[in-house]
Amino acid sequence: MSKLNILVATTSPDIKAEVIAASVAERSDMQLLEDRVLSASDIEDILNSLSDSSRCAVVLVGRPVETNELSQRLLVQHSELLVLQVDIVGDNVRIGLRDPRLDTLFDTLRDLAERMGARSIERIAHVRFETDRPTDA
């Protein structure tokens, strides 16, 4: 299996972003693109410079009010992109992908649940489907 390309970016300098980038760099199944934490403002240009065949994920570190809009814009512009939003306050993580197939979504949910095991009594997953497609009223 080929390595998954990862871009790690932050809305402001933060130790979580540095730890995430270092962890990605140590993995044999991932490639930290640019070899550093990037500014969130640089992400779009870098993504646009990558070939369409490159499998890539973006880790955005910051407060949701600062990362939500960028995450949504990236998902609209890059249909195969996966965006992981990491909140700098607390331990909340959001995973965004565009037009997921139910089988893929549920396989991923199951895999996450199995990997997390019983490390915590309470685990919550919020799944929300949105579409840009018009709906019949």
Describe the structure in your own words.
- With 137 residues, the chain is an alpha/beta fold.
- The chain has 4 helices and 6 strands.
- The protein has helices spanning 15-26, 43-49, 64-77, 102-116, and strands at 4-10, 30-32, 38-39, 56-61, 82-86, 93-97.
Low-confidence stretches: none
Strand composition percent: 15-25%
Shape: globular
Helix content: 25-40%
Question: How are the SSEs placed, and which strands pair?
Answer:
Layout: E1 4-10, H1 15-26, E2 30-32, E3 38-39, H2 43-49, E4 56-61, H3 64-77, E5 82-86, E6 93-97, H4 102-116
Parallel strand pairs: 1-2, 1-3, 1-4, 4-5
Antiparallel strand pairs: 5-6
Summarize the structure.
This protein has 137 residues and is of the alpha/beta class. It starts with a strand and ends in a 21-residue tail after the last helix.
Characteristic terms for this protein:
137 residues, alpha/beta, 6-stranded mixed beta sheet, 6 strands
